[in-house]
Design a protein that fits this description.
Blueprint lengths: L1 H26 L6 H22 L4 H28 L9 H4 L3 H41 L4 H5 L2 H14 L6 H28 L5 H25 L4 H11 L5 H10 L2 H32 L2
Length: 299
């Protein structure tokens, strides 16, 4: 019974805030999320990355280990995604990003935080940073079908990650106001990005429920099995194993839609949007199961 109550503590805040955004989006289709996007991209995400790496007790070895585990998971996601898209005769380049890049930040970090506390944030940060890096490298390559170094140079979260790793490696002490400021910005960002996710979901359209439901299932149902294989292969246990499993179960990242909107054709963009919607809806059912399993066996 205690575990079920903990699941409510984890998911009700997340779904409630997403619901606020969804209602706002339906109530006002012209709701301008650009200020939220700009804040999250330029200030919020970099501050979150810096805070999570610098102040949650993570070590440099743990960070790089979980960065590597994320790459291993995404390799598995990629193989499975290519097979699924080939079977359905879809664009296995342009439509691959939502299948291989899960929403480890907007949804994953809050759920890991509520499930395992600040200790969970430390492990989750390595995975989330790997996904952020791949969004602006592999994600752009797949969407644009060629790589742009300029976009990578302008990616402010990467600078925050590198700065935090330098402070972490040299064990540098920063003034208390830096921790307090990044702490406040981190939690404000979590609220805002969850709300903006709800707004985005209220606007995205599904072009084919049959096909995109299948792709959504590949993302959120097959994902945890790949995460579990990573746990077994690398002999992970405790909180770290639970975080790998939870992050592997996340739905498609909204950022794949934003990047696709910049570089892909309309047909591909519509397919990406549909996969995001269906995977997110299905994840409302699958995530509590995955988190229950994680909390029960990985503490």
């Amino acid at each position: 019974m205690e575990l079920y109550l903990k699941l409510l503590d984890i998911f009700l805040p997340v779904f409630f805030i997403i619901g606020i955004g969804f209602i706002l989006g339906k109530k006002d289709p012209n709701f301008d999320t650009k200020p939220i996007t700009n804040f999250a991209g330029l200030i919020g995400t970099p501050a979150m990355a810096f805070y999570i790496i610098s102040y949650t007790g993570i070590t440099i070895d743990i960070f790089f280990n979980y960065f590597f585990y994320a790459l291993a998971m995404i390799f598995g996601f990629s193989l499975l995604g290519l097979i699924a898209l080939f079977i359905m005769r879809r664009d296995f380049i342009g439509e691959l990003p939502p299948l291989i890049l899960p929403n480890t930040a907007n949804i994953g970090i809050p759920i890991c935080l509520f499930a395992y506390g600040t200790e969970g944030l430390g492990f989750a940060s390595g995975i989330s940073c790997a996904v952020i890096f791949l969004h602006f490298t592999l994600g752009i390559l797949l969407a644009k079908k060629n790589f742009s170094l300029i976009i990578l140079v302008k990616n402010t979260p990467l600078y925050a990650i590198f700065a935090a790793l330098i402070f972490l490696y040299f064990d540098l002490q920063l003034p208390g106001f830096v921790e307090n400021t990044t702490f406040l910005v981190t939690y404000a960002t979590i609220f805002l990005v969850l709300m903006s996710l709800g707004i985005a979901l209220s606007r995205l359209k599904v072009i084919s429920w049959y096909q995109t439901t299948f792709l959504g299932l590949v993302r959120v149902v097959a994902g945890p099995f790949i995460g579990f294989f990573v746990v077994l292969i690398f002999d992970l246990n405790g909180v770290g194993a639970g975080i790998v499993l939870i992050q592997s179960a996340m739905p498609s990242a909204i950022l794949t839609y934003l990047i696709g909107s910049m570089y892909s054709d309309k047909k591909t963009i519509d397919s990406i949007a549909s996969t995001i919607v269906t995977s997110t809806v299905i994840s409302f059912l699958t995530l509590p199961i995955v988190v229950y399993f994680s909390l029960k066996y990985f503490q």
